[in-house]
Write a structure and sequence with these properties.
Layout (H helix, E strand, L loop, with lengths): L10 H7 L11 H8 L8 H12 L8 E5 L6 H10 L3 E5 L6 H7 L2 E4 L17 E4 L3 E2 L5 E2 L4 H5 L4 E2 L6 H21 L2
Parallel strand pairs: 1-2, 1-3, 3-4, 4-7
Antiparallel strand pairs: 5-6
Helix pairs in contact: 3-4, 3-7
This protein binds NADPH dihydro-nicotinamide-adenine-dinucleotide phosphate.
Length: 189
């Protein structure tokens, strides 16, 4: 099932109609509950890909101050739970958060998933912070940009993902990984 669905279709009803054992996006309440209770099975692909990026880059989440910007069911919430499971100290920010810039500046790991083109500015980034840009936004001129103003943030961040070519390909890889995980679980292996 590919989101977003047209407005006349109840998205949650469709998600709940999926067999949790085949729910490779990890959106079904059974899989969301497993993740929230610390017993993950099929985990949403985008946050799973972000955790893989952090691991491959040698970023230690344990003990780090992490800020997740966005609280959607498909990115922000599961992202926060995965970082928490990795022993980060996690803050979740959203549209009602006061002084977002100050919250971001405190973060050693910043994951932006808001869907607002280049909202995160260079002076929002703490020195040497790891910045993961989940956002995909198309500008009026057709250019794809993230939620982070990449050029401005480059000089502040210790590491930063580009858009396109950062989180997006990891999401696809993790979808395939989840497909294999689900298939092996059904075989009982
Ligand atoms: P949603 O629109 O579902 O959620 C956006 C979140 O950002 C909400 O929690 C919202 O807060 C918050 N937000 C919106 N505006 C602001 C603001 N001005 N200040 C602070 N917080 C704000 O988006 P998704 O989570 O589905 O996606 C986020 C982005 O990630 C999009 O650009 C999407 O295209 C991209 N994406 C990329 C993927 C990839 O593979 N790279 C996969 C999935 C998504 P509130 O809850 O208060 O409304």
């Amino acid at each position: 099932m590919q989101l977003p669905l047209p407005p006349q279709i109840r998205t949650q009803a469709v998600i709940e109609a999926i067999d949790p054992a085949k729910d490779v996006d990890g959106f079904h309440p059974v899989n969301a509950g497993k993740l929230a209770s610390g017993h993950p099975f099929l985990v949403p692909c985008t946050p799973l890909g972000v955790m893989r990026l952090l691991a491959e880059a040698g970023v230690v989440a344990a003990g780090a101050r992490a800020l997740v910007l966005g609280r959607s069911a498909i990115v922000g919430r599961p992202m926060a739970l995965l970082l928490l499971a990795a022993d980060a100290t996690v803050t979740v920010a959203h549209s009602r958060t006061r002084d977002l810039a100050a919250e971001c500046r405190r973060a050693e790991i910043l994951v932006a998933a808001v869907g607002r083109a280049e909202m995160v500015r260079g002076d929002w980034i703490g020195t040497d912070a790891t910045v993961i840009d989940v956002g995909i936004n198309r500008r009026a001129d057709g250019r794809l940009v993230g939620d982070v103003a990449f050029d401005e943030c480059l000089g502040h961040a210790g590491a930063i993902t580009p858009v396109p070519g950062g989180v997006g390909p990891m999401t696809i890889a993790c979808l395939l990984e989840n497909t294999v995980t689900a298939a092996l679980a059904r075989r009982g292996s």
